[in-house]
Amino acid sequence: MPRTLATARGRCPHKAALKARGINPNKLLLSSHIQRMGVTSATSRPRSHEATEKVLKHALEKAQQEEKAKQEAVEKKGTEEKENRKRSAKTEIRKHQMVTRSMVKKVDVVKEKS
Questions:
Q1: CA-CA distance, 28 to 39, in Å (whole number)?
Q2: Where are the annotated segments for Disordered (predicted)?
Q3: Cβ neighbours of residue 52 closer than 8 Å, sequence gap 6 or more
Q4: pLDDT tens digits along 2-21
């Protein structure tokens, strides 16, 4: 069961900072992530419009970064596949050239014998 800051033993160093932001620290869940972000639980909302804006802006930036990372991964995968196809095509060409050279040599050897 999550403990709130009010029921936790000792004093929380973030409590004064949260009060200064206009967030009720007694309703905030004890989680270092939540405390760092300044995000409140569902029962307690930030009093100021700016705090809400800040949280939404951060969430939007995070979503954009994740989307950008996914896009870069897809592009990187595509370029790797192209390079692999080129590499395999080059090896196929080399194999074909070696086979044709050996066939030509065999034909030349047969012609010389006859």
A1: 8
A2: 60-98
A3: 45, 46
A4: 455 554 455 566 677 777 77
Q: Which two tokens stand for residue 86?
A: 């080129």
* Cα distances (angstroms) measured from residue 40 to each of 3, 19, 28, 112: 14, 12, 6, 91
What torsion do the CA atoms of 105, 111, 112, 114 make, to the nearest 10 degrees? 150
Cα dihedral 69, 74, 75, 80 sign: positive
Measured distance CA(18)–CA(15) in Å, rounded: 5
Segments making up each domain of the chain, as ranges: 1-47
Supply the pTM of this predicted model: 0.33
Average pLDDT over residues 35-54: 59
Give the C-alpha separation, 95 to 60, whole Å: 53
List, as one string, the DSSP characters of 28-75. SBS-HHHHHHT---TT---SSHHHHHHHHHHHHHHHHHHHHHHHHHHH
